[in-house]
Specification:
Blueprint lengths: L3 H14 L3 E5 L10 E3 L9 E3 L3 E5 L2 E10 L2 H10 L3 H10 L11 E10 L2 H4 L6 E5 L4 E5 L6
Parallel strand pairs: 5-6, 6-7
Antiparallel strand pairs: 1-4, 2-3, 4-5, 7-8
């Protein structure tokens, strides 16, 4: 079984081979991740921060992902909520040094990379890019809006 760190490493290599620009990588236990705020203006006291395991960009599509050994519905729901979170998108553009003038042009695409998954559970998340990471290869299990 692959560790979360190995899954993160493999997904970064996979994305680089597909000509994605890696903006941030956060390995489990490391203190140096891209911490991004999320939550609405009305929820000032409920705002939280997320540190995605990987962030990659290709054209105007920004992939925000979590690496998991085993599929997690909780993480899938969390990632889905970030897709339309304006504070998160703004923080991402500023901290990842993206062109702020193009803020509204960027599309956030949530993704999960995992080694073990119950395919039945992933059916509820057709809007996520799901990577299956095995010891000998990585492939896209559910493509959503991911370009080649």
């Amino acid at each position: 079984m692959l560790s979360e760190a190995k899954i993160t490493q493999r997904i970064a290599s996979f994305l680089r081979r597909k000509q994605w620009e890696i903006l941030a990588i956060h390995y489990p236990g490391s203190q140096a991740g891209l911490s991004l705020r999320c939550g609405s203006r009305e929820e000032v006291f409920k705002r939280r921060r997320v540190i995605p395991d990987f962030i990659a960009k290709k054209n105007n599509l920004v992939l925000i992902g979590e690496s998991k050994v085993v599929w997690s519905d909780k993480d899938a729901r969390k990632l889905r909520s970030l897709k339309s979170d304006t504070l998160f998108k703004r923080d991402l553009v500023i901290k990842a040094l993206l062109d702020f003038d193009c803020l509204n042009d960027y599309v956030i695409q949530p993704a999960i990379a995992c080694s073990i998954m119950d395919q039945q559970k992933t059916i509820d998340f057709p809007d996520l890019v799901i990577f299956k990471v095995l010891s000998n290869r990585t492939f896209i299990f559910n493509q959503a809006t991911m370009p080649d």
